[in-house]
Each structure stands twice: as C-alpha cells, then as structure tokens.
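Dataset card, provenance and construction

Sequences and ligand SMILES were collected as paired inputs. For each pair, a complete structure of the chain with the small molecule in place was predicted and serialized as structure tokens. The example below shows a pair involving zinc ion. Curators did not alter the output after generation; any descriptive sentences attached to a record were derived from the structure itself.
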Amino acid sequence: MKKTSKIRRAKMLAQGGRCYYCDLPMWEHEAEKVGWPDLWTNEKPKTLQCTAEHLVPRSDGGVDTPENIVAACWFCNTTRHKRKQVRSPQEHRAHVKKRMRKGRWLQASINL
Ligand SMILES: [Zn+2]
C-alpha cells in the first residue's frame, strides 16, 4: 500500500470516518479490512469517496507526511484545488460550512 494511502486511512479512522471539511461520512474501497463498517452498502456516491488531502498542496511543495495530510471527501478536495488561488484549509472549511448552511454544498445531491 502506498504511503499516502496508509496516512489517509489512519486519518480517516482518527476523524471518525468524516470529511475534514464538510464532516459528512466518507467511504473507501477496502474499509472492512481496517474494521471500518461499510456504511454504504448500496450506492457509494463518488463525491464522498475518501481522499488524501494535502493541506499544503503538492504544487506548492507540500509533502506526504501525516502532518500535511488529512482525510477529505473527493468533492471538498477537488473543489479546493480547482481554484487558481487555493484557499487555506481554514478558509476552505469556512467556505464549505457556509455553503452547507445555505443547502448549497453536496448534501443536496445525496441521501444521508
Ligand atoms: Zn467533504
């Protein structure tokens, strides 16, 4: 298993399976192997797949260390890095929370 995958998995467990930014429950492919209950027996929304999120982006010299990696859902991760000027983790979390309060984040498209 890749180093980043190991870190991602450890972070996912430490975060109670919830995304660093939006706090929604995530899933990953081999969850049962780490004793993680598979909450998504039916449809697994691509948007909530667990990904390794680099707090300092790799493009800015961010490294693959436990200090720089958290577990975030695919949606929060890609949304942050799509921007030309990548938000700081704190700014992105605040942005996500604000959008969620307005019902304008990904929770609108999934059934939880
Ligand atoms: Zn998220």
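Derived descriptions for this record:
DSSP finds three helices and two strands in the chain.
The radius of gyration is 14 Å.
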